[in-house]
């Protein structure tokens, strides 16, 4: 059982993550992974395992958060469903390769450093606000299949909904930032679903997991965070459509930098 104070902390984390999921299309995983890692470490879970369980639990919550977020964005007509359908098959393949393969082979310390590196890169890309070439568009079907594979694979390694890769990718291809955020929210569901199934299967025989674990997923934290996050995602989506483009990119970038620093510290000190 979780202590009342811990439940309150997880609920607050879920509210914040849900708001960011709607605001930035990032699924909230970038926020949840560092905090869940600290929570599990505080409960006596080994450092290597705590990082892996945090990533898996974060990804499982995105299944619920993404549904709430994308519903709000869809009502505003902002989701590019044509992009979703072309990226989704690659996402499924990339997620399977990550959650069932690379995730189990890599140590938690390495995953924390990978998380920090890719999040920092994504933040820099958004902060630069470099205008893409006007003639650049999304690649063809094969190119989007490959892009989806990369998004699904990287998301599976770091426990995020893919927005930290898909939003910069889409804006680089001249998709408007508000459409990119909304479409990323829709992509969060297949990313989370395929990766979460992989984490559950891959973690069945791992020792040292706390009570209430299903594979690498820590179910008590999943229940509390998911319940809170679905309440705030629509409000985040509403805010996303009210903010100007440049401000939205800056918010995205600085949040990513802060979370990268947390996981870099965790990776270097594990």
The radius of gyration is 17 Å
Taking strands numbered 1, 2, ... along the chain, how are they ordered across the largest sheet?
Answer: 1-2
What composes the largest sheet?
2 strands, antiparallel
Number of helices: 10
Write down how many β-strands occur, each being a DSSP E stretch of 2 or more residues: 2
Which residue ranges are poorly predicted, with pLDDT under 50 across at least 5 consecutive positions? Answer: none
What is the average per-residue confidence, as pLDDT, rounded to a whole number?
Answer: 81
Distance between the termini: 27 Å
Task: Explain what this protein looks like in three dimensions.
This protein is an all-alpha fold and 270 residues long. The chain has one domain (4-269). It is 79% helix and 1% strand. It contains ten helices and two strands, in the order ααααααααββαα. It has helices at 4-24, 29-42, 47-75, 81-105, 108-128, 141-158, 163-172, 177-202, 219-242, 245-269; strands spanning 213-214, 217-218. A two-stranded antiparallel ribbon has the order 1-2. A hairpin with a 2-residue loop joins β1 and β2 (217-218). The mean pLDDT is 81.
Brief characterization of the structure:
By secondary structure, the protein is an all-alpha fold. Helices cover 79% and strands 1% of the residues. It has helices at residues 4-24, 29-42, 47-75, 81-105, 108-128, 141-158, 163-172, 177-202, 219-242, 245-269, and strands at 213-214, 217-218.
Can you lay out the helices and strands and say which pair or pack?
Elements: H1 4-24, H2 29-42, H3 47-75, H4 81-105, H5 108-128, H6 141-158, H7 163-172, H8 177-202, E1 213-214, E2 217-218, H9 219-242, H10 245-269
Antiparallel strand pairs: 1-2
Helix pairs in contact: 1-2, 1-8, 1-9, 2-3, 2-10, 3-5, 3-8, 3-9, 4-6, 4-8, 5-10, 7-8
